[in-house]
Amino acid sequence: ALSDLLRSDASVTQTGSGPPRPFVKEWKTADLVQDLDLTRDQRSFERGRQAFIDAQCILCHRLGDDGGAVGPELSGAASKYTVRDILESILEPSKVLSDQFQNSTFFLKNGDEVTGRVESENDSRLVVVTDPLKSTRQEIRAADIQDRHASKLSPMPEGLANILTKEEILDLLAYIQAGGKREAAIFTPRP
């Protein structure tokens, strides 16, 4: 009964590991905001999907039948956010942080810091996921914690789109807006 799901997870691993791509540009929202109207139609589904893979979005975000579950699910992103909001979240992931995905930083009495998402917590200890892709966890005794703050940095790294061209980023935005659906009007050429 789970064979389709298991096959799709295997394809994520296979498609998410291609050769490294060269640096293109350190993209800023201002570099692309004037071109956002170009994401409305006649975009390339294939290039958008490949950008989703190459920029490593697929490792953490689920879109349609593909992707991970570490970050927000993106199939309905276009119904909640503008294309500019989506662009900003890709290029400036720490600008707006959702409480649901925000990490915490723990300052320990020995001077160490631990940053991650709290997986479990009780009066004597807590478990922090420090690397969700590798499922790395660290257990901390509550008595060892000096202070605790919400992290101001997104768990999503900056610069993931710096390997993409402008056209690839516009296709990526269209791909996300279309919910990863090849048949979406955004990919259909005008008559």
Mean pLDDT: 90
Total beta strands: 7
The helix/strand order is HHHHEEHHEEEEEH
Spans of at least 5 consecutive residues with low confidence: 1-16
Shape: elongated
The fraction of residues assigned to DSSP E strands is: 15-25%
User: Structural class, from helix and strand content?
Assistant: alpha+beta
Indicate the radius of gyration in whole angstroms. Answer: 19 Å
Query: Roughly how many Å apart are the termini?
Result: 42 Å
Helix-strand blueprint:
Elements: H1 3-15, H2 29-32, H3 45-54, H4 57-60, E1 62-63, E2 66-67, H5 77-80, H6 83-91, E3 104-108, E4 113-121, E5 125-131, E6 136-141, E7 145-150, H7 166-177
Antiparallel strand pairs: 1-2, 3-4, 3-7, 4-5, 5-6
Q: Overview of this structure, please?
A:
By secondary structure, this protein is an alpha+beta fold. Helix content is 29%, strand content 19%. It has helices at residues 3-15, 29-32, 45-54, 57-60, 77-80, 83-91, 166-177, and strands spanning 62-63, 66-67, 104-108, 113-121, 125-131, 136-141, 145-150. It has a five-stranded antiparallel beta sheet, with no helix packed on it. A two-stranded antiparallel sheet has the order 1-2. Strand 1 (62-63) and strand 2 form a beta hairpin. Helix 3 (45-54) packs across helix 7 (166-177). The model is unreliable at 1-16 (pLDDT under 50).
